[in-house]
Amino acid sequence: MKRLSVLFITLLAAAGAHAGEVQVAVAANFTAPAQQIAAEFARKTGHKAVLSFGATGKFYAQISNGAPFEVFLAADDTTPARLDKEGGTVAGSRFTYAVGTLVLWSAKADFVDGKGEVLKSGKFNKLSVANPKTAPYGAAAIETLTRLKLLDAVQPKLVQGENIAQTFQFASTGNADLAFVALSQVFKDGKLSSGSAWIVPGAMHEPIHQDAVILTKGKDNPAAAAFLEFLKSPYAHAVIQSYGYALR
Amino acid sequence: MLTETDLQAIWLTVRLAGITTLILLLIGTPVAWWLARSRAWWKGPVGAVVALPLVLPPSVLGFYLLLAMGPHGPVGQFTQSLGLGTLPFTFWGLVVASVFYSLPFMVQPLQNAFEAIGERPLEVAATLRASPFDTFFSVVLPLARPGFITAGILTFAHTVGEFGVVLMIGGNIPGVTRVASVQIYDHVEAMEYADAHRLAAVMLVFSFAVLLALYAWRPNPKKGA
Asked: Measured between CB atoms, which of B71, B171, B188 is closest to A174?
């Protein structure tokens, strides 16, 4: 027992000497690339990035109320900018790590045509969107529907995901025929992973600039700065682009 | 004051809880009666299944219900074959979920009440040539009245307090699946704390009033129930 605890303490000390830990709040659309990047980050630097996934608006509320996050990868630029203004961040740390793409997706093959005409046809049971009040991709979806003058027509068929991950899950389980999700959720290495999709032209909505920022809680943590730096590395850029994001 | 959508959410919640309570009275009474009277070996397993929602995280219930009621699930295939479509994102989908979710809150108080009656009144009724049917309505129901009231109030209140399952299968549709608990969550997430406070206060007062009524009404154990 004693020997075991000595071993444990030694291990703990060894781990503490070289590596830190950083708590990262990640917008749900960036889940898959963030996991891949965090794994490589741990291999390269020895630091561990502990990832939490959710809606950007929810994270904002949590961070403003003292959540222990040190780095924030948001799904928009307005939320990190607001935190900047309120003094909740490390000044000058904010930058756009990815530019997101909205996509109309169905789990069924050949269900969505290349121009999104299926929206006008009305031949679908439900259309799943993320809560536009808290999820930037949800706001972009509503903006797109408004621009297409289809919002009123599809209103009775709208269902809301709590964040972009649940929005996708409603469609992937087949409960909704259609969903407005992030391209990154259905795209890998230059092609759709499954189903059918219409990649919404960027002109249909405000560009989805996704900003990263170091939060006040992470200002003295070298692992936080290292993680943000790693996000700018060629490796991270390649991963981000492989999921269909653009870089700024 | 409460906004239009808040009132809509409250009314929806009351309707959901009311309908769920009625349905569970119909389903729960025979189940509780059987559990109280039966000596079958599978009484144990049935009792355990009834109590499951007390223990299971709502996410487990929501996950299974979403898959089962979806277009590829058994329930979904059945409802589609009836031409009813699928249940997730509908009011009746929430009713089905709530019936599962609140089942033990109906069955267990009823079962306790039925067990408390004991054999004697039933035997007396039988010697007076009352049919089992007659016995149930003239003897059992009046004697088990406190149990019914407790079960009804608990079921109603527990359904009002439902959140996780609704979040998973509801789709947050105003007037259809956006119940009060989800509406509060929405307000909080959007940082509309003033709105959240108003609705949350209503829920707090309601819950306290319900429990107060329940405890105040409960017969004094010294007098014997």
From this structure: B71
First to last CA, chain A: 55
Name the residue with tokens 């991270």.
A236
Residue A210: half-sphere exposure toward Cβ, Cα within 13 Å: 30
Binding residues of A for molybdate: 56, 164
Q: Flag whether residue A173 sits within 8 Å of chain B, measured between CB atoms.
A: yes
Cβ(A232)–Cβ(A31) under 8 Å? no
Residue A104 makes CB contacts below 8 A (sequence gap 6+) with A112, A116, A118, A119, A178, A179, A180, A197, A198, A200
Over the stretch B160-200, which tens digit does the pLDDT of each residue have? 999 999 999 998 898 899 999 999 998 888 878 899 999 99
Interatomic CA distance for residues A171 and A157, integer angstroms:
13
CB proximity list for B196: less than 8 A, separation 6 or greater? B184, B187, B188
Q: Name the residue facing B88 among A58, A131, A175 (closest C-beta).
A: A175
Architecture of domain A2-99+208-242: 3-Layer(aba) Sandwich (3.40)
Is the CB of A176 inside 8 Å of chain B's CB atoms?
Answer: yes
Measured in angstroms, the CA of A239 and the nearest CA of chain B are apart by 30
Please name the CATH architecture into which domain A102-199 falls.
Answer: 3-Layer(aba) Sandwich (3.40)
Count of Cβ atoms closer than 10 Å to residue B76 Cβ: 23
- Please report residues of A whose CB lies closer than 8 A to that of B189: 55, 57-58, 61, 131, 133-134
User: Beta partners for A106?
Assistant: A196
* Nearest CB to B66; choose among A61, A133, A173: A173
Residue range(s) in chain A whose domain bears CATH number 3.40.190.10? 2-99+208-242, 102-199
Q: Please compute, for residue B201, the number of CA atoms within 13 A of its CA located in the half-sphere on the CB side.
A: 8
Give B50-102 pLDDT, tens digit per residue: 999 999 999 999 999 999 999 999 999 999 999 988 999 999 999 999 999 99
Share of chain B residues as helix, strand and coil, in percent rounded to the nearest 5: 75, 0, 25
The pTM of this model reads 0.83
**Which domains does chain B show, CATH number per domain?**
4-38+56-218 (1.10.3720.10)
The Cα–Cα gap between A218 and A216 comes to 5
Closest approach of B60 to chain A, Cα-based (Å) = 15
**ipTM of the predicted structure?**
0.78
